[in-house]
């Protein structure tokens, strides 16, 4: 039986973990603030894809060190935050054959893990899903529900195919790519624009952000900058990617980005992983990104104000 340890089993981790468990994988979780309730009662999940159900992990750990047998797959689904050493967090449970799977937003977030675990296969995953925690142990899946997965830095991966088969079997569409870094840049075209913009005016949903021709043109120009950076980094974007993202987002019901939800609840935000890394890549490759630089400066000010208010 495939053993899976999910580290940071919040919204994304519990949802995907539950899907994997349904397909027969032995799924254990490491929780922090939700530990007591999850250990006692499992997760209460509402989902249009998986149905409303309880997910009882095989084991619930308070820390990674409590997991004494290295799993086949270690899936990391914490937020990617400044000052958090993700390699140190997962190290106690990584065995020589453990495949490390990152299901996290941002660009250039894999190198640190690949350097720390040179012998382990690293899979990088991009969740396209709208899911949140409505209370401790309660996971509310609202919309979408897909995963793009691939071997980092590139190439084919039977280990990715096995995870994809399990998720597809459970109804979560999972595509395996041999160019996951390119896929990450493509997702950044959406995340590095909508996510920071969604917190600049309080909390803005997608309908408001695309509500006027001016705001739509602004988002388009910001997306063009991300595409220019991706191209300079060696990952040219499809010419229609912006049109497709804007059209697809307009067609969706109004949506709050994961950063907007973190903002709302006063939680740390993934500004560095999503936007800071994009801006740093632009600087490295000599790409002028005035809109992204402005968004970066403004979101850092917002973050500083939230910290000061805490
Ligand atoms: N939610 C969504 O719809 C989407 C999310 N993503 C990405 O997926 C990733 C996960 O997001 P999401 O599931 O929403 O985040 P959540 O905040 O719901 O879950 C993260 C979990 O990690 C836990 N955690 C953090 N640090 C530690 C630690 N040191 N030890 C143990 N547990 C820890 C948190 O615990 P605690 O509660 O104590 O902080 C929390 O349970 C992010 O990169 C996000 O951007 C991508 C697409 C959509
Ligand atoms: C693209 C989207 C909306 C869902 O996957 C997301 O990544 C986010 O909210 O941060």
Written description of the protein model:
By secondary structure, the chain is α/β, with parallel strands linked by helices. The chain has twelve helices and ten strands. Helix 1 (11-22) links the parallel strand 1 (3-7) and strand 2. Helix 1 packs across helix 5 (158-170), helix 6 (180-200) packs across helix 11 (271-284) and helix 11 (271-284) packs antiparallel against helix 12. The model has no long low-confidence stretch (mean pLDDT 97). NADPH dihydro-nicotinamide-adenine-dinucleotide phosphate (NDP) is lined by residues 8, 10-13, 30-34, 77-80, 89, 103-105, 127, 129-133, 258, 270. Residues 8, 10-13, 30-34, 77-80, 89, 103-105, 127, 129-133, 258, 270 line the site of NADPH dihydro-nicotinamide-adenine-dinucleotide phosphate.
Terminal residue distance? 45 Å
How big a fraction of the residues is strand?
15-25%
Q: Write the CATH homologous superfamily of the largest domain.
A: NAD(P)-binding Rossmann-like Domain
- Counted beta strands: 10
CATH class of the largest domain: Alpha Beta
Shape: globular
What helical percentage do the residues reach? 40-55%
Summarize the model shown.
By secondary structure, this protein is an alpha/beta fold. It is built from 12 helices and 10 strands. Helix 6 (180-200) runs parallel beside helix 10 (258-264) and helix 6 (180-200) packs across helix 11.
SSE blueprint and pairings:
Layout: E1 3-7, H1 11-22, E2 26-30, H2 35-41, E3 43-46, E4 53-55, E5 60-61, E6 73-76, H3 86-90, E7 99-103, H4 111-116, E8 122-135, E9 138-151, H5 158-170, E10 173-176, H6 180-200, H7 206-209, H8 213-232, H9 241-251, H10 258-264, H11 271-284, H12 290-309
Parallel strand pairs: 1-2, 1-6, 2-5, 3-9, 6-7, 7-8, 9-10
Antiparallel strand pairs: 3-4, 8-9
Helix pairs in contact: 1-5, 6-8, 6-10, 6-11, 6-12, 8-11, 11-12
Bound molecules: NADPH dihydro-nicotinamide-adenine-dinucleotide phosphate and ketopantoate.
NADPH dihydro-nicotinamide-adenine-dinucleotide phosphate binds at residues 8, 10-13, 30-34, 77-80, 89, 103-105, 127, 129-133, 258, 270.
């Amino acid at each position: 039986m495939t053993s899976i340890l999910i580290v940071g089993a919040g919204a994304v981790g519990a949802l995907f973990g539950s899907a994997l468990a349904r397909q027969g994988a032995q799924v254990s979780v490491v929780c922090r603030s939700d530990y007591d309730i999850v250990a006692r009662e499992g997760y209460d999940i509402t989902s249009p894809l998986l149905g409303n159900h309880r997910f009882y992990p095989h084991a619930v750990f308070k820390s990674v060190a409590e997991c004494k047998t290295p799993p086949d797959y270690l899936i990391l689904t914490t937020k990617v935050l400044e000052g958090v050493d993700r390699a140190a967090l997962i190290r106690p449970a990584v065995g020589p054959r453990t495949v490390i799977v990152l299901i996290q937003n941002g660009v250039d977030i894999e190198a640190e893990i690949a350097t720390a675990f040179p012998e382990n296969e690293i899979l990088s995953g991009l969740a396209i899903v709208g899911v949140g925690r409505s209370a401790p142990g309660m996971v509310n899946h609202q919309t979408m529900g897909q995963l793009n997965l691939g071997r980092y830095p590139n190439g084919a991966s039977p280990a990715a195919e096995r995870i994809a088969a399990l998720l597809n079997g459970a109804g979560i569409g999972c595509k395996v790519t041999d160019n996951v870094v390119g896929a990450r840049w493509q997702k950044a075209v959406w995340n590095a624009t909508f996510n920071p913009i969604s917190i600049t005016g309080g909390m803005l949903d997608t309908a408001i952000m695309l509500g006027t021709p001016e705001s739509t043109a602004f988002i388009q120009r910001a997306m063009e900058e991300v595409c220019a950076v991706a191209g300079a980094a060696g990952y040219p974007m499809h010419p229609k990617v912006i049109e497709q993202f804007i059209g697809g987002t307009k067609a969706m019901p109004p949506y709050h980005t994961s950063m907007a939800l973190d903002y709302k609840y006063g939680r740390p935000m993934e500004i560095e992983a999503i936007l800071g890394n994009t801006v740093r890549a632009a600087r490295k490759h000599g790409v002028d990104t005035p809109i992204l630089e402005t968004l970066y400066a403004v979101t850092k000010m917002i973050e500083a104000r939230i910290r000061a208010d805490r």
